[in-house]
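Support request from a user on the community tier.

User writes: "When I paste my structure tokens into the form, the page sometimes reloads and wipes my input. The last time it worked, I copied everything first. Here is what I submitted, just in case something in the input itself triggers the reload:"
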């Protein structure tokens, strides 16, 4: 999702503002999905190795912060060196690396997984979220 969105923004020279906004939002969503996936892996490994839980979470936050600082630091230089569209084209690299990591990392298959319980729990959470949203809108009016 992020690779395609960033390629569209970087390669299309006369992209309509709404389509560019949607592409940038989908690129940000792909980064958020990757971040949540990494957090889930850290949480899963924290259950397996509870004595390392705090260290894994700290390392995750540290790496994310350092990556953000490096990205913000070099973005200005890249815009001057290769232009704004070229810089947006470079943003396809992290999304491509997430796809590569997803292909290379093997996940354990769990036979007879109770998908019905997950669906029931998800629908219960969705109903709760919607009722909270409507309760908040009543107070804001």
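"...and here is what came back when it finally went through:"
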């Amino acid at each position: 999702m992020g690779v395609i969105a960033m390629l569209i923004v970087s390669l299309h020279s006369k992209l309509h503002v709404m389509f560019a906004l949607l592409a940038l939002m989908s690129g940000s969503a792909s980064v958020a999905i990757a971040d949540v996936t990494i957090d889930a892996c850290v949480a899963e490994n924290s259950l397996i190795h509870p004595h390392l839980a705090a260290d894994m979470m700290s390392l995750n936050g540290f790496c994310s912060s350092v990556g953000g600082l490096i990205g913000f630091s070099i973005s200005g230089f890249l815009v001057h060196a290769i232009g704004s569209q070229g810089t947006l084209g470079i943003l396809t690299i992290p999304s491509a690396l997430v796809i590569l990591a997803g292909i290379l990392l093997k996940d354990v298959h769990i036979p007879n997984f109770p998908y019905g319980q997950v669906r029931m729990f998800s629908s219960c959470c969705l109903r709760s979220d919607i009722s909270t949203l409507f309760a908040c809108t009543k107070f804001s009016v």
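Agent notes: The reload is a front-end session timeout and is unrelated to the input. The first helix runs from residue 2 to 11. Residues 2-113 form one domain. Escalated to web team.
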